[in-house]
Specification:
The complex is a heterodimer of chains A (267) and B (389). With 267 residues, chain A is α/β, with parallel strands linked by helices. Helix content of chain A is 36%, strand content 24%. Chain A has ten helices and ten strands. In chain A, the strands form two sheets. Chain A has a six-stranded mixed beta sheet. A four-stranded antiparallel beta sheet of chain A has the order 2-1-4-5, with helices on one face. In chain A, a hairpin with a 2-residue loop joins strand 1 and strand 2. The longest helix of chain A is centred in the C-terminal third of the chain and has 18 residues. The N and C termini of chain B lie far apart (106 Å). Classes of the chains: A alpha/beta (267), B alpha/beta (389). At the A-B interface, helix 4 and helix 6 of A face helix 2, helix 3, helix 4 and helix 13 of B. The structure holds adenosine-5'-triphosphate and magnesium ion.
């Protein structure tokens, strides 16, 4: 089995604040291991792109960090706190500091979009109903949905609108970290570019840290500060887009120097 | 500028107060400090509204220089106040915000320019009338859906009989297993207990005029003609009818039914026919199981509670029970199975996008099926009475 490649980003790793630190993560279903002894760091304020072939475990990694999948081994530290050691109250507090956009949207089907966005606020805070409604509509417009989408039900939305609505819900509590699972899959190129700009401007204004699983080469090039490549059950290599173009690994090379990647202008 | 003079007077002593309002000539200076985030918004909302309730005649300066944490909720509170004051004629100016905070306010500023639509006023009379009308329309739509499904089922079924359409045997066997075979233990147990209860209750009353032996007649006739099949149908409606609705409904929700149609596969062939046929085959057998289990329950009570020996019990059964009685019960079962199956499939197909609608239709499927089964049982009773069976 191949070992982890030398990462171009390795020398920059030293002095930045780590908000998520995963060590030795091992996850499997049945007798099949999906992730094995995987290490990952996410730094404050960065947009980390996670790529890898279909079925390499990107969604599984994200769910493991959030604590939705059981780990066989390893630790996850968020804001310097070990999730296993945290009390339920602490976990709850950490949970309020991150927002998640699931691959399928996962909006509550019996609530309108505005109610969906309001759920975390109603559950965790004692805001007046009017303020919850205003803040929900604010978030809905912030993510680029038309105002009248607020009173629609998820089944009445298009695929791209579902993505945006669930981003609005992920941002409801102004989290410090957002996890995005293929946020631009299924969006038209203009919509996807808007989404990228949106993520970037949210990062700049809110100081977000973004963990983004994506296959969208444009997004990877435009908004990510760093890209981690998943393969062989671990993080093969990480670095910027330009750095990964020089990595000597068949999959990484095919991905970042393939015909699709070649068409992108790298300045 | 006013700003410099004010900075000297700005009290740094109570920096804890998140809002500090100073009169400034004819206007106001609202200084925000500390954390203005979604966490603190609940308190800040009231205080900010109270402090700036009356718009002054002069300009209002909102000063963000003391802010530590500021997010979209904080930005919205500022923006909302600014809008309210501007509307009542005051000139509002923002000062002291950092660049990031300004861009946040700028982002928030663009939203909610149009007020959300007010719900239309409701007239109670019209509301009531529309409720009645809607109810009537729903009943009609129901009738139509059931008839349509019946038609489609008959077309599909006769097609299968004439080998024009393929019967989905694996699905059929699977549903026989789940709806029929796996239901045997619970139905046997339930009927066993029902048999015991009827026998015990009967014995209690028949004892007073020394006719305990007729308990056997009571149980045999009652269970075989009515109770056995009725309770089995109710149990199957609750057990399998709900499962069918939920299965078909969740497939409907995830567009799987549409996918079948697009692939040129009839959902009725694949989903409805095997389920209904499986129920039609299973329910009579389950009813027979229920009859036997109830008699066994009665036997236990007769033997141990009343004290009648087994051979007398068997003799009495032979005397009391006619094969036609058992048939009267079993004959009803396929019809009840059809009703349960149709209700389940029709309701499943009516499921819309939400989880709530899935629950609603599953409930409706079971309630309607049980109701129809009971109504049907009554009609059969009248029919057999007219025939004199
Ligand atoms: N709950 C589960 N039970 C069993 N296997 C699972 C489960 N969830 C994921 N897997 C397996 O884990 C592997 C990784 O799945 P994952 O969803 O993380 O892929 P991915 O990298 O996100 O792919 P994609 O790019 O297609 O979304 C797959 O082989 C999948 O079959
Ligand atoms: Mg995935």
């Amino acid at each position: 089995m191949e070992t982890v490649l030398d990462s171009p980003a390795a020398e920059r790793r030293t002095d930045r604040e780590v908000v998520i630190r995963g060590r030795g993560l091992t996850v499997g279903f049945g007798d099949k291991l999906i992730l094995e002894d995987l290490d990952i760091d996410v730094y404050r304020g960065e947009i980390l792109g996670v790529v890898g072939g279909s079925g390499t475990g990107k969604s599984v990694l994200m769910r493991t960090i959030i604590g939705l999948n059981a780990r066989r081994a390893g630790t996850v530290e968020v804001f310097g706190q070990d999730l296993d050691a945290a009390s339920p109250a602490e976990r709850n507090r950490i949970g309020r500091r991150w927002g998640v956009l699931f691959q399928q949207g996962a909006l509550f089907s019996s609530l309108t979009v505005a109610q969906n966005v309001g759920v975390p606020m109603r559950e965790h805070l004692k805001l007046t109903p009017a303020l919850v409604d205003e803040l929900s509509r604010l978030k809905i417009e912030l993510v680029g949905l038309p105002p009248d989408a607020a009173d629609k039900y998820p089944s009445e939305l298009s695929g791209g609108m579902i993505k945006r609505a669930s981003l609005a819900r992920a941002l409801a509590l102004d989290p410090d970290i957002v996890f995005l699972d293929e946020p631009t899959a299924g969006l038209d190129p203009i919509g996807a570019a808007d989404f990228d700009t949106l993520i970037e401007s949210l990062r700049d204004t809110l100081g977000l840290t973004v963990f983004m699983v994506t296959h969208d080469l444009d997004s990877l090039l435009e908004v990510t500060d760093r890209i981690a490549v998943l393969g062989n059950k671990r993080v093969l290599v990480d670095g910027t887009f330009a750095e990964l173009k020089t990595v000597d690994h068949p999959w990484v090379d095919a991905y970042f120097n393939g015909t699709r990647a070649e068409r992108l202008k790298i300045e | 500028m006013a700003e410099t003079t004010l900075d000297q007077t700005a009290p740094s002593a109570d920096a804890q107060t998140p809002i500090d309002v100073q009169s400034e000539r004819a206007g106001l200076r609202v200084r925000l400090s500390g954390e203005w985030s979604v966490e603190t918004a609940a308190d800040l909302e009231d205080r900010l509204d109270a402090e700036t309730a009356q718009a002054p005649s002069g300009p209002v300066v909102i000063d963000g220089s003391g802010l530590e944490k500021f997010d979209t909720a904080g930005a919205w509170l500022v923006e909302r106040t600014r809008r309210r004051l501007t509307e009542s004629g005051a000139a509002v100016e923002l000062a002291g915000f950092s660049e990031g905070q300004r861009s946040l306010i700028a982002a928030v500023e663009k939203t909610q320019r149009t007020a959300p639509p007010e719900p239309a006023p409701v007239n109670p009379v019209i509301q009531f009338l529309s409720l009645v009308g809607r109810g009537a329309a729903l009943v009609l739509a129901d009738l139509r859906a059931v008839t349509t499904m019946l038609g489609e089922f008959l077309v599909a079924f006769s097609g299968t009989l004439m080998w024009k359409r393929r019967m989905r045997w694996p699905a059929f066997v699977n549903h026989i297993d789940r709806a029929g075979f796996q239901a045997v233990p619970i139905i046997a147990l339930m009927s066993f207990l029902i048999g015991m209860i009827i026998a015990q209750q009967g014995a209690f009353y028949f004892r007073s005029f020394g006719a305990e032996l007729f308990v056997v007649d009571l149980v045999a006739v009652l269970v075989c003609r009515e109770i056995g099949v009725l309770l089995t149908a109710i149990m199957v409606a609750g057990r399998s009818g709900s499962a069918f609705t939920a299965e078909i409904g969740s497939m409907k929700m995830r567009e799987e039914i549409d996918a079948l149609t697009v692939l040129g596969v009839s959902p009725v062939d694949v989903l409805v026919v095997p389920r209904i046929l499986a129920l039609v085959i299973s329910l009579p057998i389950l009813a027979l199981v229920a009859d036997l289990a109830a008699l066994a329950g009665a036997w236990v009570v007769v033997l141990f509670y009343i004290g009648i020996p087994t051979d007398t019990f068997l003799l009495r059964i032979k005397e009391a029970l006619d094969v036609s009685y058992v048939l009267v019960g079993i004959v009803k079962a396929p019809f009840m199975a059809m009703v349960i199956g149709f209700m389940a499939c029709v309701e499943g197909m009516k499921v819309k996008g939400s989880a709530e609608s899935l629950g609603e239709h599953t409930t409706a499927s079971v309630v309607k099926a049980i109701f129809m089964v009971v109504v049907m049982d009554g009609m059969f009773a009248m029919f057999f009475a007219a025939l004199g069976i």
